[in-house]
Amino acid sequence: MLVILFCIVLLILLVSWAKVNPFLAFLLVSIAAGLMLGIPINKVTASVQKGIGDILGGLLIIICLGAMLGKLVAASGAAQKIAEVLVNAVGQKYIQWALVAAGFIIGIPLFYGIGFVLMVPLIFSVVYKYKLPAVFIGLPMIASLSVTHGFLPPHPSPSALVVLFHANMATTFVYGLMIAIPAIILAGPVFAQFLKKIPSEPLATFRAEEMPADKLPSGFISFFTALLPVLLLMLTAFFPYLGVKDPGVLKAMAFLGDPSIVMLIALIVATYTLGIKQGRSMSTIAVNFTDAVKDISLILLIIAGSGAFKEVLTTSGVSNEIADSLKSFNMPPLVLGWVIAAIIRISLGSATVAGLTAAGIVASLVVSEHVNPNLMVLSIGAGSLAFSHVNDSGFWLFKEYFNLSIKDTFRSWSVMESLVSIIGLGGVLILNLFV
């Protein structure tokens, strides 16, 4: 624990005080952590490389294609059109709530990273057009994405926990909704009221000059193109319930439902609907794509660095040591599950790793203590979201996309995640009194 604490403090000081590039800081701290935690010296670099490969393997294509799609949505005027339609529908006064609702609906079928990349252009289009505080407008929508990621199936961690605890997927989803809605409201729009003065100049790649109304794409084309990845993923999610048994069709749908393929299809469609159809040349579109990748290159490196740090801590076995030392604590099983998941999350940064590790430790308690398995899924899910900070890729995604200082990222993102976690535990304990 002392080694982990030292490394986290060192990372914060290197980035904020010494102004070291975050990727280099992660590399230095990851190597130092590996050596101090007893990983053989000839295997430290292998752990670093594996961590980088593992996290980029799942995110590189999605983030790059998402950035290209976002750039095209912004440059074509589609983001401007979407913002106008939303504000005209609900009024500028309630635009924040409209974005929260959109984030929640979209967050149910989408993995967090994909949802974040897809929704950021929509957030920034509202921010730029109506000159609103970026964090105040954006954080509530991001909160809704985070809550669905931690609480609700079909996301990886809650889905795996449902199977592990032999819980009921539908019941867990209903209980999760009952907890998720107040968590989003309190940690989103209510908490964001205190963040209006945080300075933020969001990532320039999603900013476009305001275009005259007659040059904008139609509302249908704008919404359809921007939300096409969501529609495709929802279609593939519901496909298994149609009763199709043909192996070839099932394999094809599995291929088409892969997030990378979905993003590629969406980008191809957007290239036509928001590019060629709007009279833009392929050379102009290609420049937009190149600029988009340049703008998010540092983000990719920072996420890679966080993956290296997480892998070093995982390889060292420190997560298992932390968990074993907590087994002897005398506390209610639902609270114990939350505490174990929270400590592993704070130590390693990964919500999924925290959830699955905690589940393996308390699984026997669910049976022996007659704990409601659906509530244990939600308790651990809430704990796995606690206090995201510098070892979590989500922290850096939010910081870099919104162009915040580390201090302001702690004040906004980290506090929001902690509120979601604590409110989630409170909701679980209240439900436990009645079910």
UniProtKB/TrEMBL annotation:
Family assignment from sequence similarity: Belongs to the GntP permease family.
Pfam families (UniProt xref): GntP_permease
Cellular component, GO annotation: plasma membrane
Residues passing through the membrane, by range: 28-48, 55-74, 94-120, 132-152, 172-195, 216-242, 254-275, 296-315, 335-363, 375-398, 410-434
Organism classification: Bacteria, Pseudomonadati, Bacteroidota, Sphingobacteriia, Sphingobacteriales
Organism field: Mucilaginibacter terrigena
UniProt protein name: Gluconate transporter
Compartment list: Cell membrane
Major localization listed first in the record, in broad terms: membrane
UniProtKB keywords: Cell membrane, Membrane, Transmembrane, Transmembrane helix, Transport
Taxonomy, superkingdom: Bacteria
GO terms assigned for molecular function: gluconate transmembrane transporter activity
Topological relation to the membrane, as annotated: Multi-pass membrane protein
